[in-house]
Design brief:
Helix content is about 30%, strand content about 20%. With about 140 residues, it is of the alpha+beta class. The protein has a five-stranded antiparallel sheet, with helices on one face. The termini are far apart. About 20% of the residues are buried.
């Protein structure tokens, strides 16, 4: 797949420079060039899948296993007391590279990042209709 248009596919094939921190038969993890915090790493499947809706569950499981491994390495090597995982599927969710990936972001202090959204607590009973809609697949 030489000359792949996807930057992550080019990283996988070795034609785009990167700084890998972990690799296995199914995944590669490399430092994000835009570090949110020191050690911010991306974990990607070697096969191209656009987003969460397209990746087969067994490949997603490989990515999650690699994510757990990378999180442990970041925690130990960088003495990060916390880790955030971030994934975005679709442009409206802020996905900017359309190759499935998970961000593993080491955390050093509660204030080193800004939360991406504001949560509003709702009465549990008010969520009944929404839960039913999701369960029914509507």
């Amino acid at each position: 797949m030489s000359g792949a248009p996807c930057v992550f596919c080019r990283i996988v094939e070795g034609t785009e420079p990167s700084q890998p921190v972990y690799e296995d038969a199914h995944t590669i993890a490399f430092l994000n060039v835009a570090q949110a915090t020191k050690g911010h790493t991306l974990v990607v499947p070697r096969r191209h899948h656009r987003d969460l809706t397209e990746i087969p569950p067994e490949e997603a499981a490989h990515v999650m296993r690699a994510t757990v491994e990378v999180a442990g390495r970041l925690t130990r090597a960088l003495r990060a007391p916390g880790i955030n995982l971030w994934h975005a599927s679709g442009e409206t969710a802020w996905q900017s590279v359309f190759h499935f990936h998970i961000h593993v972001v080491p955390r050093y202090a509660t204030a080193d990042l800004t939360p991406p959204w504001t949560e509003y607590a709702l009465p549990l009973a008010s969520l009944r209709g929404l839960a039913e809609e999701i369960r029914s697949g509507a």
